[in-house]
Amino acid sequence: MSEFILEMDQISKSFTGVKALNNVNFKVKKGEIHCLVGENGAGKSTLMKVLSGVYPYGTYEGNIIFDGEIKQFSKINDSVDAGIAIIYQELALFPDLSVYENLFVGNEVQHKGVVDWNKTIVESRNVLEKVNLSVNPETLIKDLGVGKQQLIEIAKALSKEVKLLILDEPTAALNEDDSENLLNLLRELKKQGITSIMISHKLKEVIAIADSATILRDGNTVCTLAAAKGEINENTIIKNMVGREINNIYPKRENQAIGDTILEVSNWSAYDSQLGKRILRDVNFHVKQGEIIGIAGLMGAGRTELAQSIFGNPKNYKLQGELQIDGKPRKFKHTSEAIKAGIAYVTEDRKGDGLFLTQNIKNNISVGNLKEISASGVINENEEIKVANDYKKDLTIKASSIEQLVGNLSGGNQQKVSLGKWLFVKPKLLILDEPTRGIDVGAKFEIYTIMNSLIAEGMSIIMISSELGEVLGMSDRIYVMAEGEIKGELSAEEADQEKIMQLATQ
Ligand SMILES: Nc1ncnc2c1ncn2[C@@H]1O[C@H](COP(=O)(O)OP(=O)(O)OP(=O)(O)O)[C@@H](O)[C@H]1O
Ligand SMILES: [Mg+2]
After folding, report:
1. From start to end of 336-470, where are the E strands?
2. Which of 31, 365, 416, 440 could make an SS bond with 39 (beta carbons 3.0 to 4.6 A apart)?
3. How far is the CA of 40 from the centre of ligand 2 (A)?
4. How far is residue 177's CA from residue 206's CA, in Å, rounded to a whole number?
5. Of 405, 426, 447, which residue sits at a domain end?
6. Is residue 251 part of a domain?
7. With a cut of 70, which residues of the chain have pLDDT below it?
8. Does the CB atom of residue 171 touch ligand 1 within 6 A?
């Protein structure tokens, strides 16, 4: 028997106008944890979709040998039957159904043709145990945090016989604790002989967990590194991924001129009538022109709620307190009023409310500022094309053209389109909510560089981020939130990881 459980040999896959995979070779040893890394759009998710039968045999070229046999999956269920389970980049649970319904949907426990729900609930307890999750199976998915939802996805995969578990950016939306928890689970599954493939942009995790790491670039295999040979380290990965060295991922700002206070929020409280809960309490903070303000905190600390409450309050929280822009008190009844006042907000959930997935890149970028490219109410198409091409180039959005549908872009490139859309609105104050989630290191560096040039042009930025490195590396001042309150303010000089965590867990 071969030492490899999986051999993907000379795999090529094209979409109209894009060669996503070009003779990729990918071999995974039995029982190992193998990380798949590469820039946004490198082809990682596509390769895994070829493997799992999302793209059936006949729509790609090359051979797949799994568990000693040549496989030609014509549908997803064929790969499931072979023992391959894949958890996609975007979670696929039904939020309004319970945990047990989600676990067994499509795989119901039946008795004489009727679903046996009692047995299903008992079974779900067993399955949940496999991922060390103690939740009541009757809980609704939407009432669980993303960390737990991710474990439920894995539990669902493990409810069938699994030899190979594939996780596409499983920790992208998780906090440090939940991520650690998930990595430990992979280590445990490894002990049970389950092989895993994990796609991740978080190099620290890759270094911590990978036995092997394969790097893709532009649809080609660059190399496979082995932990046993000491090859899996940040420098080697970045160099092979990006094709150049990046010495300091957080670029320095030069000639920064900090001006007057442009946003001042005082005694700001918010009540969510739907949840019946106070979500922000007595928040006080300000932003000056030309500053990058970091807002740190754990998941659920109220950071996104704060951003939304400022950005025209789309969720209709009951607000108290005062908001001043350029020294003048303002009350926004709608996000459009906040936009007019010069605020833009790039959401953390690009699929949820950031982008029109069924529209192309061009339309997504221009939609927020059609005025700028119109004369007498008619859009100047040449101007629209030029603007979109400029952002595609500046943000290095990887796509065949600006006509490509945003829904077909890789995750990280969708994030860049979202950023482009709001930059074109030309705000005074840009609020970025988890701006580099799911973004590769090279592109992160580019986004930070763009942030710095926006600051140099006199813009101000509020950056909400769960990545402490980024908060520390990019902010002039940092506010730390917990339980809907600001627990402290730190200057760039005094801030460090420990101080932030201390305030965040107060
Ligand atoms: N359905 C599709 N139609 C057209 N092009 C596609 C489609 N799916 C993927 N692509 C293109 O194929 C390339 C590879 O995309 P893929 O999603 O595999 O990247 P990735 O490595 O997973 O990136 P990320 O890290 O951003 O998730 C990209 O250029 C993408 O735009
Ligand atoms: Mg992907």
Report:
1. 343-346, 374-375, 378-379, 429-433, 460-464
2. 440
3. 7
4. 16
5. 426
6. no
7. 349-353
8. no
